[in-house]
Amino acid sequence: MTFCKFLFLSILLFTSNAFSQEKAYVVDGDTIHIGSNKYRFSGIDTPEMKQTCSKDNKIIMCGVLAKDALIQKINNRPVLCKEETIDRYKRIVAECFVNKESLSKYLVRNGYAFAYRKYSKKFIEDEQYARENKLGLWSMTFEYPWEYRRKLRSK
């Protein structure tokens, strides 16, 4: 096999694995499934599905809001994920992209997710932008997801 054929086949194999033909199923604001692979977005945290926020004396399902924002952003397009590690729940921790745009960056910058400083400093500037512009959750009264989970565990 010539080097060019080997290179072509290697690229073809890599890209066919990277861009799954299967649709991404959105579990919540920071977790998707593609086929049998479960991906947890690295460096961010979104509200839990049952978590609520408030705005103008109205209760908002902020976890559902984050999930819906992700569904709309993906919009049935192929998702490419760059694996970083595996978490304790056996999910692939990754940064995922649609059309070369980071879904994590999009969610944080638009106020649907928070920079998860415990694990990464990557999205702090995006969070600051959302906070300063009162985008998404920053226009509401909310509890950080890690605080919400901590309270649930202590009950």
Structure overview:
It is built from five helices and ten strands. It has 155 residues and is an alpha+beta fold. It has one domain (18-154): OB fold (Dihydrolipoamide Acetyltransferase, E2P), CATH 2.40.50.90. The N and C termini lie far apart (63 Å). The model is unreliable at 3-20 (pLDDT under 50).
What is the tally of beta strands? 10
On the 0 to 100 scale, the average pLDDT is 89
The helix-and-strand class reads alpha+beta
Note the main sheet: 6 strands, mixed
Number of domains: 1
The fraction of residues in strands falls at: 25-35%
CATH architecture: Beta Barrel
Task: Specify the overall morphology.
Answer: globular
Low-confidence stretches: 3-20
Q: Give the terminus-to-terminus CA distance.
A: 63 Å
User: What is the CATH C level class, in words?
Assistant: Mainly Beta
The Rg value, from CA coordinates, equals 17 Å
What is the element string, with H for helices and E for strands? HEEEEEEHEEEHEHH
How much helical structure, as a percent, in the residues? 25-40%
Number of helices: 5
Fill in the CATH topology: OB fold (Dihydrolipoamide Acetyltransferase, E2P)
Question: Layout of SSEs?
Answer:
Blueprint (H helix, E strand, L loop, with lengths): L2 H16 L5 E5 L2 E4 L2 E5 L2 E2 L6 E4 L2 E4 H13 L5 E7 L5 E7 L2 E2 H7 L4 E2 L8 H9 L12 H10 L1
Parallel strand pairs: 3-8
Antiparallel strand pairs: 1-2, 2-3, 4-10, 5-6, 7-8, 8-9
Helix pairs in contact: 3-4
